[in-house]
Amino acid sequence: ALPIYNTRILWLHTIIAVLYLILTVLFMKHHTSAIKYRDEHTMRHTLFITGLPKNAEKVTIEEHFKEAYPDSTIVSVELCYDVAEVLTIMEKRNNAEKSLQYFTDLYDKDGTHVMINPKACGQFCCCEFAACQRVDAIEYYTQMKDELHQKYLERKDRKS
Q1: Is there a contact between 140 and 147 (Cβ–Cβ < 8 Å)?
Q2: Range with the lowest mean pLDDT among 57-61, 79-83, 141-145?
Q3: 43 pLDDT band (50/70/90 cuts)?
Q4: Which long-range contacts (CB under 8 A, 24 or more apart) does 76-84 make?
Q5: 118: Cβ–Cβ under 8 A, 6 or more apart, which residues?
Q6: What DSSP letter does each residue of 33-51 carry, written as one string?
Q7: How many CB atoms lie within 10 A of CB 99?
Q8: Which residues pair with residue 136 across a beta bridge?
Q9: pTM, whole model, 2 decimals?
């Protein structure tokens, strides 16, 4: 058996916990009921389709849905692209731009061109042979940045 002092504290703790729970529920109900959605009266339906051919065009898709579902209104058709691939390309491009900025600042400060080995683990390669040649860092990162920008534009325009 618990002493009377411990049972009073236990009951006090239980009552406070229940009151706290009730107050929390009322507080949350009050504040969530105040949230208003902007377009409550507007109903929107979005249809996302994957696996379309890469040469699919907006007009063709829109005509298909108008013919297949004449009672429905087609507001717009948007072709999308793989965002993950575009983000990866942009991340590589940003890294190339940062490296280009670093080597450009180094050139402006010291006036020397830094030669790098762009191959994997090239910083550990101390020999000079055909497959392991050093290149100018500014030229390499400028070319890499331009290539990645071109790849980004091509991927973004392809929308597949």
Answers
A1: no
A2: 79-83
A3: low
A4: 79/52, 79/159, 79/160, 80/159, 81/155, 81/156, 81/158, 81/159, 81/160, 82/155, 82/160
A5: 135, 140
A6: HT---TTSS----------
A7: 17
A8: 115
A9: 0.51
